[in-house]
Amino acid sequence: MTTKFSNKFKTKTDSELLEIVETPGSYQKEAVLTAIYELESREISNDVNTNSKSKIQSQIELGNQNIKSTIRNESLLDLPSTISNSSKIIYLSAALGIINPILVNLLTHINNFSNPINLLIILTSSGTLAFFGFQINLGKKWSRDVFTILFGLGLLAFPFVITDTFRLNPIIGILSLLQAVLQGYAVLLLFKSSSRSWYKKQKLNKKTTPQQRTEVKTN
Question: Phi, psi at residue 4, to the nearest 5°?
Answer without folding.
Answer: -70, -10
